[in-house]
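Researcher: Structure prediction, please.
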Amino acid sequence: MFNDILQKFRLQNIVGKFIYANVAVYIIVVLIGVFSVLFNAGNIGNVLIKYFELPSSLTMLLHRPWTLFTYMFMHEQFTHILWNMFALYFFGKIFIDFYSIRHFVGTYIIGGLFGGLAFVLSYNLFPYFAPYVDNSYLIGASASVLAIVVAAAVRNPAYRINLLLVGSIKLSTFAIITVAISVFMLSGNNAGGNFAHLGGAAAGWLVAYMLNKGVDITSVVNKPVDWISALFKKENYRRKKKTRFKYSAGGRKTDYEYNARKKENEAEVDRILEKIKKGGYSSLSDDEKRRLFDASSK
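Model: Predicted structure follows.
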C-alpha cells in the first residue's frame, strides 16, 4: 500500500504533490495523537504541533526558527485542511496555466513566509495583541494559498471562475473580495490569521509584479531547493554505482536491440507529449503518466 501511495505521489503534478504533503503531515499527527491517547500517554500529536506551529512571541521564535517554514504545512482541524486543500487544488491548477512549476513552489513558500512574518509583526506591533502575544500560534496553508490566488489574478485578471451559489466571476474580483474580507476581520477572533492572509496576498502580488518586470524572486527559494535536490541525486548516483547487475544466460543485448528499444521508447514519449499538448496532462492514463515519469527520471 505504501508503494502504491508513493507511486501515485510521483505521478502527481506539483499541485498534487503539495496537497499530498499537507495531508500526509496531518494524518501522521492525528494518528500519533490517537495511539498516544490509547496508551495513556496523553495527546502527543498536540505536543508535536507545538514544535512546528509558528509562535507570535519573538523570544519563542528565536528558539524555534524552523516554525516560520513548517507552520505552512501543519493543520489541526479537519475542516481547516479540507478547505485549504480544496482551494489549493482549484486555484493551483489555474496558477499552473499561467506560470511554471518552479513559480508554484516559490510562490507557495514565499507566500507562507510573508504570511508568517505578517502574523509575528502584527502581534508585536499593535497594542491590541499585547495580552495574547505569549500564547498565540499560527498554522495552516492559508497564506500560501492566497499568494497563489493573487499571483494568478495579477497575471490574468479577466480570467473567469465558476463558484457555487455565485456563478461566473472574474478571478481578480474574487481575489479583491477575499483580501477585503481579511482586512475587515483584522480585529476579529482570527485576527492573526487574517494578517497572515494579507501577508500571503502581498507576496503573491509581489511575485507576479516582479515577473512582469522580468525579475523572478521565486529563485530565492528555488535555488536552495535545487541544491538540496542535487544532494539527493548525488547520493542516488553513488548507490547506483555500487549496484552490481546480473545478466541472464542470453548475455548482453546487442547494439541493434538496444537502439531499437531506445527508438521505440522515444516514439512513445513523443506520442504522450503530443497527447498532453492536445488534451492536457489530465488526459493521460495512469500507465502513460508512469511512462512519462520514468522517461523524465533518466
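Model: Strands lie at 54-55, 137-138, 160-163, 167-170.
Researcher: Thanks, that helps.
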